[in-house]
Amino acid sequence: MTPNYRLLFGPLAAAILGIGIVGLALLVPNYSHVHQTVSEIGETGSPARIAFAVMLGCVAVCILVFAWGVRDASVAAHHSPLAAYSIGFMAVSAAGIAVFAYPHPAHNIFGMSELIGYQAPLAFALAWRHDPSVKHLVVFSWIFFLLIWGAIALNLSPFVAPVWVYLKPFHGLVQRALFAAWFGWCAIAGILLFKRS
């Protein structure tokens, strides 16, 4: 069986995003990873605007290639490729966020559309649940699905005034927890599926 190197684009996307967020934030005076959102790094007028858009474009391409690899692995194993399509949709969201810088209204629309991509671990866990060769990855996917939904709930806390009072000072960390959970799943799932291939 030929190794499916496209699966390694999941970890690559995670690495590019992680390094990009930390590195590009250095270009923004007085930027705080704790208090500010990731979008503020590349917002309109930011010195990191172009570099941020390019970084997100690279992440989108990596996610798309990773989705292609997951699709082929799913089809070869006779499982539903729904997880791959969910992953691929995240590439559309990332590209939209790159093109439409905050505070453009489309920026938030593409940001909310990430909710579709965040379902990839659930789709994977359901599709592969009867495959004994990846039972650890299925359990891992269930765990990360729960972590992702916990992080989504925290990110929606601005709609719940009593909770938001406590989370607002740490909004940057709350948002990063969501990204870390989803991209962490992509990285580990990509590596484990690659080893399987």
Structural overview:
This protein has 197 residues and is mainly α. The protein has one domain. Helix content is 71%, strand content 0%. It has helices at residues 9-25, 49-76, 82-99, 105-117, 120-128, 135-155, 161-167, 171-196.
Descriptive labels:
single chain; 197 residues; globular; mainly alpha
Helix content: over 70%
Structural class: mainly alpha
DSSP, total strands: 0
Low-confidence stretches: none
The succession of helices and strands, N to C, reads: HHHHHHHH
- From the N-terminal CA to the C-terminal CA, the straight-line distance is 7 Å
Secondary-structure blueprint:
Elements: H1 9-25, H2 49-76, H3 82-99, H4 105-117, H5 120-128, H6 135-155, H7 161-167, H8 171-196
Compact description:
The protein is mainly α.
